[in-house]
């Protein structure tokens, strides 16, 4: 990281940012085509869980190239200045890299969906096998991630 003064090195702080974030941007690449998509997610033990429909561009790309990058941010706020070039932004963010694996086993899918649901609510809903069969669930095992902050 170029700006060491903005780097977040404490894993507990990075984990807290991951838990606070509402949207995770998943970035993938196929041949010479980058693709990024905002997604709902769950985070546990340095892994991200995502659910999706059963078809689509991101799934096609991930099946060909399971390497992915992600980004989340929290507590964003524009900080204006009299000089337009001196405007800045307050934020805390995490960027990371990893490899995706698709989860096919229904019990493992159920656990992954619980992790996603726990990210957004305390409610415990039963997930039927028929519903699980209709979604694609995948896990991004994080190989590295770094935090960055500005204005904190």
Automatic annotation (TrEMBL):
SUPFAM superfamilies registered for this protein in UniProt: FMN-binding split barrel
Annotated InterPro entries: Pyridox_Oxase-rel, Split_barrel_FMN-bd
Domain of life: Bacteria
Protein name (Swiss-Prot/TrEMBL): Pyridoxamine 5'-phosphate oxidase-related, FMN-binding
Gene3D superfamilies reported for this sequence: Electron Transport, Fmn-binding Protein, Chain A
Organism encoding this protein: Desulfosporosinus metallidurans
Pfam families for this protein: Pyridox_ox_2 (PF12900)
């Amino acid at each position: 990281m170029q700006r060491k003064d903005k780097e977040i090195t404490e894993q507990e702080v990075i984990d807290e940012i991951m838990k606070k974030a509402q949207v995770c941007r998943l970035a993938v690449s196929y041949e010479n085509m980058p693709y990024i998509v905002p997604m709902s997610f769950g985070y546990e033990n340095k892994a991200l869980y995502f659910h999706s429909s059963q078809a689509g561009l991101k799934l096609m790309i991930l099946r060909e190239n399971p390497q992915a990058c992600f980004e989340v941010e929290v507590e964003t706020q524009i900080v204006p200045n009299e000089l337009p070039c001196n405007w800045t932004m307050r934020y805390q963010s995490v960027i990371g890299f990893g490899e995706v694996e698709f989860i096919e086993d229904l019990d493992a899918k159920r656990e992954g969906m619980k992790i996603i649901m726990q990210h957004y609510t305390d409610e415990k809903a039963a997930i039927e096998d028929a519903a699980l069969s209709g979604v694609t669930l995948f896990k991004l095992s994080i190989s590295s991630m770094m935090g960055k902050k500005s204005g904190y």
